[in-house]
Amino acid sequence: MSSEIVAQPLDGREENVDTRRWLGLAVIVAAQFMVVLDVAIVNVALPSIKTDLHFSETSLQWVITAYSIFFGGVLLLGGRLADLLGRRRLFMIGLALFTVFSLLDGLAWSETSLIVFRSAQGLGAALLSPAALSILTTTFREGRERNVALGIWGAASGSGGAAGVLLGGALTSALSWSWIFFINIPAGLLVLAVTPWLLSESRADLKHRTFDFAGAASITTGLMVLVYAMTRATQHGWLTTETIGLLAASALLVVAFVVIELRSKAPLLPMRIFRLRTLTASNVTGLLVGASIFAQFFLLTLYMQQVLHYSALKTGVAYISLTLTIIAFSAVSQALVTRFGIRWVLTAGLLFSAAALVLFARLPVHGSYFGDLFPAFLLSGIGLALAFVPISIGGLTGVRQADAGIASGLINTSQQIGGAIGVAAATTIATTFTTRFVDVHAGASQLGGAALTHGFGIAFYVLAGVAAFGALVAAVLVESGAGGMSAREIDDLLLHIRGLVLVREILRQRGASAAELDAHTAELERLKDRLAELAVPATVGG
């Protein structure tokens, strides 16, 4: 087990391939940014939509709920479809749906039309997002290269929500609510146009092409019912018969899915994937981060608009400091993960997030931007960057290329479902403690700044506890370093590398195509990086 893998210099053709990969990354990151942006941009425009389309107070929430049900419910299915049908193909189908229904959203003429179009737009996002992340996973080899790519991905994902609030406020104030949807059209068409040129097609190399219809139906329906139950709980209460029934139905469907997958010869979600400890821990922490961060954005927007009386545009501008901090520290985050591993970077990020939530819990009724919000925004931005990037890296660590799509769908689902639970729970907590404040303070109003701030504060403290628990999970469950391998596993890896070198040389002598040689070279580089992370010298020429 001694000697070295010789890295050959890139010739002109290989340099062009490398450049195209990074341009391809820009394409999928742009698409992901559109998806994340859209989740937040609509919130700011809801009052204008309500007035123009004559929504009732109860039906207005369906503009958000319809999108969330299809987006959160179909992500897992979208990830596996990408593996089976082709990742670029599903990426383009999802993006086309997202773009077309963005146009129709902006042209909607009634409550029903907008809700139907938003549902279809959420479906497009659910196909697009996991396909994009799986393309990244199969394009960039595990190690430093993928970490850099995921750092860029994390910057887009982490900043998209804050940017959405800013852009939503600006477009609604300057033009009309329709433009929050129309803005997706030129971006979507441009990405669609360059995708065939910049992204290569790939799909799972499986012995079968059987589709797990029972598993797909049970988990998709279960997740949709869960998202709907969370939304309903905020409006009608957690202890109503309907809410309890929906939660029970969702739980039964998820349990049925697990049973189906354990018995299936071609499962939608192979349960062996959870043997990867870092992947499992990343999904658990992703759920907790989603719960705390989605709720944080929701409550902060309410605080700024209802307590500080910020306009929609001013609320959006207030988030600029958070957005820029996330972008700046995402690059730092991936470098720290490459140097120190996932565990401690993720733990630190969640502790920063918890500290920021404590500061948000202490916001006063007459708060100022630079005195109260700005320091907490900076701390939160650092925490989000140090959390989002390692969660994405950990959720894909050790995953077979054949499972890239389903692993991508899984990490996205964890965060979205966490977000639905977090917003529902935080809304209930804030409303409950606002009501209690009014009950014990004579003259206090349910819509008064003191009562609202008290309710928000309690909810922020609970969210801080969730983030702190996430830090504990990360510190205990995420594997240190690269997640060590046994001597036998290392020997098997070395044999695999030697076999690939031999096959590549045979292909070269037979005049194989550049694409075939590139595929073998990329796999060799990935395995070389894996050995380097384990500090194992390898005796392979190449």
Description:
The chain starts with 11 loop residues before the first helix and ends in a 9-residue tail after the last helix. 80% of the residues lie in helices and 0% in strands. The longest helix has 42 residues, at 12-53. It has helices at residues 12-53, 57-60, 62-85, 87-107, 111-139, 144-174, 179-182, 184-198, 213-236, 241-263, 277-307, 312-318, 320-340, 342-361, 369-394, 404-440, 449-477, 487-509, 514-533. The chain has 542 residues and is an all-alpha fold. Mean pLDDT is 82; it is low at 1-11, 482-487 and 533-542. The chain contains 19 helices and no strands. The protein folds into three domains: 12-211 and 266-477, MFS general substrate transporter like domains (Growth Hormone, Chain: A, Up-down Bundle); 212-265; 487-533.
